Amino acid sequence: MKKTLIASTLFFAATTLLSGCVIHVGNASAQEGEDISSVFGSVDVAEHRSVGDLSSVNGNVSIEDHAQAEDISVVNGGVEIGSHVRIDEINIVNGDLDAGSNLHVTNSIETVNGDINIEKQSTVQGSVETVNGDIQIVDSVVENNIESMNGDIILKGDTLVKGNIIYKMRDDGWLERNSTKPKLTIDADVSIGGSIILERPVNMDIANPALQEKVIVSYSSSK
Hints:
- This protein is mostly beta strands.
- It has a 15-stranded parallel β-sheet that branches.
- The protein is globular, with a radius of gyration of 18 Å.
- The two termini are 21 Å apart.
């Protein structure tokens, strides 16, 4: 997992942000391309609006259909995205991402403790990464890697992953012997351009035998 989420958290701690219940971006006074930040409130971007960076410490971020934003950073809260939305990058510490169809993310999506759900006809030009959350992607394209440590990964329909699928071990190599194994589920029509790299034990349900040949186990059998 990259250090982007840690940097985002430090940013929140070191910067004075707006506070309140809900910040609505959709009225005539809201400026196109402006950055929106909140400490104790949610941020709501209306349809067809274009904004800059969105950040919240304790609140959700909601973006309605056909809207556009730059980076989204949330510490404690979820992100809900409508259909046909364009985002540069998404970073969440404690919260889920639920995205509608035709999402376009220019860079990567990262969470620490939160699920990532991406619906059909979406494209992520970077990686999709989580530590403890589940990842589910349907009929979409990920142009880089999908990475997790402890969460399930479910790939459905005609999903294409151009990079690798990686289950990572903690940096110190620690793994509790009786810890629950995450599960990797890949439907028959899913395509993987790279390899399926397992740095820790994982339960697998891979429908296509050709993809099973892409599995690389890089941990000792004693773990």
